[in-house]
Amino acid sequence: MALRKGLLTVGLLALLASPTWAQFGRDGAAGWSGGIRAGALLSVTEFEDEIGPTIWGYVRRGVAENLEVELSGGYGKYKGSGDIADWTAERLLPQVDTMGDAYSTDMALGEVRLLFSPFDYEKWNPYFYAGVGFVRYDLDEQFLRTNDVEPISSGMLVPVGVGAQYKLSDSMALELSGGYTYTMLDDLNGAILDKGNDAYWTGLLGLTMGDFSAEPARPVKPTPTPMPKPEAPADQDGDGLTDQDEKTVYFTNPLMADSDGDGLSDGDEIKVFRTDPNKADSDGGSVGDGDEVGRGTDPLDAGDDVGEMEERAVEMPDLTEFSLPTVNFPLGGAAISAEEQRELSNTAMVLNQNPGILVELQGYTDNVGYSADNLRLSGKRAKAVKKYLMAQGVAGWRITVKAVGDEQPIAPNDTPEGRAKNRRVELIPR
Asked: Which residue of 79, 213, 229, 266 has the lowest C-beta tally within 10 Å?
């Protein structure tokens, strides 16, 4: 019939007109989705009812979290048969005549539904639906004739039901639904009787197109390219001052952490104590900067050095008859041997008995290796001797340290014996 063909055309056009698709709509921000479904329609009337076909096209859009709106259009065949002998004349309003052994009605259907999806599964999307609709129907075959029946008419619908989608892929889902539709009509079967309005059950299988990804598409922010960290300025001796600053600003040795040998690093002297990194006794009060810091006096105030100055007031011995030993070291090392320690212990005893003697420790190496490395090693050797003497009771302010490196050998470096003599710390009285 013309009505049926027109409805099918409209439904298919509505389906194809949707340009974009979206996921189930749980997030409330989905775009469009749509599909087609078909199945069976079971009439509910005063007579024996039969199953007829039905087909639908629909489009949807998410409007809130877990909520979608559906607009659908379809066709249904409302049909059945009955035995008039089962009905007495009193129950037929008005009296009717038999026109055949069955009724059949073509229905053009349109509905607006709300779909609620309270569950969140990876593959399944169960939902409940309810809505309102409109039907335009045409009595194709009539079982009974009554005076009140129009062969072509229309009315309102109220559909309710349940359904579920099963994700086949990220763009396609299989859909199964079933429900009950109550009509505001009593003549879909061609007869108006006193049993109530007509209705029908539906069972449908469909295919929905959409974006069924686990997450809705979101704009991806570009990852900023991290700026390369600037390389820290070189500080070969680790004293907290860059090599460049030591060379051009402070004029200290960039290869020695303690250029003046007072027990304080060059960086601490500049940044913490404000002392002169090139002068072991910045205030000239006779007590070295490191010793003043150690005993809690001000290395920039000569007035608090008086205790040590009194100690130095002892009569100076005749240094022409006084000599101090030379300490030798193993290849590449700064450890003091047991034999050398015994010698230094005797030296410390003499120094403690003669508090007026000051000592300069001059460190040397052989010519093995790089000169810069040798300079650092010579300083370590001189500091090792100072540390040992201080452990024996010699005041640190009486001892200064000087790194010489490999520049002043006392023996040829072309033999093992000569190189062994050059690996030394000389104790110079002053």
From this structure: 229
Burial (CB < 10 A; 0-12, 13-18, 19+), residue 329, is buried
Q: Residues of 391-428 as b/e, b for ≥16 C-beta within 10 angstroms?
A: eeebbbbbbbbbbbbbeebeeeeeeeeebebbbbbbbe
- Dist CA 358 CA 351 (whole Å): 8
pLDDT at 309: 45
- At 44, is the secondary structure helix, strand, or coil? strand
Which residues are 125's β-sheet partners? 165
Inter-CA distances, 348 with 75, 78, 263, 323, Å: 115, 121, 19, 13
Fold for 243-429, please state it: 60s Ribosomal Protein L30; Chain: A; (3.30.1330)
Number of H helices, E strands in the chain: 8, 15
> Per-domain residue ranges for the chain?
2-209, 243-429
pLDDT in tens, 106-118: 999 999 999 998 8
What separation in angstroms does the CA of 343 have from each of 81, 350, 391, 424? Answer: 129, 11, 14, 14
Query: SS3 of 294, please?
Result: helix
Residues of the chain with pLDDT > 70, as a percent, come to: 79
Nearest to 141 by CA among 52, 204, 55: 52
| pLDDT (0 to 100) of residue 187 | 80
Q: Both tokens of residue 189? A: 């079967």
Cβ atoms 105, 140 nearer than 8 A: yes
CATH topology of domain 2-209: Porin (2.40.160)
